[in-house]
């Protein structure tokens, strides 16, 4: 019979076992000597603090959320940097093209002026 009580109490936390034993002792003191009931501990001191363990879980969730937010912001910043570099490369390409087209335009102006001079010479020879 004692063996069955031991197996039933194995699944309970140690704080809970002590609470049960204290409660039984308090009941025994109340029934045996009512004058000794003044020395009993208040109920709040006996109840194990279960909420403190769940607080660790909420801190863990907070830190996991913080880590996820930091990773997402790092990815977004990396993407923005990538876009800035790509935009810079495209701007370099456009400026090279404009410079090349500007040279082509200058060449076309020279050719046009040469043609106009030649046409003026031909017109002067015909007169």
Describe the structure in brief.
The protein is built from four helices and no strands. The protein has 127 residues and is mainly α.
Q: What do you see in this structure?
A:
This protein is mainly alpha-helical. 84% of the residues lie in helices and 0% in strands. The chain has 4 helices and no strands. The protein has helices at 2-9, 14-32, 43-46, 51-126. The longest helix is centred in the C-terminal third of the chain and has 76 residues, at 51-126. It is rod-shaped, with a radius of gyration of 46 Å. The termini are far apart. Residues 1-7 have low confidence and may be disordered. InterPro entries: DUF4577. The chain crosses the membrane at residues 61-85. It comes from Suricata suricatta. Keywords: Membrane, Transmembrane, Transmembrane helix. Pfam families: DUF4577.
Separate helix tally = 4
SSE order: HHHH
Structural class: mainly alpha
Q: How far from one another are the termini?
A: 139 Å
Strand content: under 5%
Which features characterize this protein?
single chain; 127 residues; mainly alpha; 4 helices; 0% strand; disordered N terminus
Describe the secondary structure blueprint for this structure.
Elements: H1 2-9, H2 14-32, H3 43-46, H4 51-126
Transmembrane segments: 61-85
Organism: Suricata suricatta
Keywords: Membrane, Transmembrane, Transmembrane helix
């Amino acid at each position: 019979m004692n063996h069955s009580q031991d197996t039933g109490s194995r699944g309970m936390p140690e704080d809970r076992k002590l609470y049960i034993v204290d409660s039984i002792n308090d009941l025994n003191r109340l029934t045996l000597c009512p004058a000794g009931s003044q020395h009993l501990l208040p109920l709040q001191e006996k109840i194990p603090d279960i909420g403190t363990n769940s607080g660790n879980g909420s801190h863990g969730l907070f830190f996991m959320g913080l880590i996820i937010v930091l990773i997402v912001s790092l990815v977004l910043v990396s993407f923005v940097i990538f876009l800035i570099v790509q935009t810079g490369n495209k701007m370099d390409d456009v400026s090279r093209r404009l410079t090349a087209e500007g040279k082509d335009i200058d060449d076309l102006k020279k050719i046009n002026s040469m043609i106009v001079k030649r046409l003026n010479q031909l017109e002067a020879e015909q007169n």
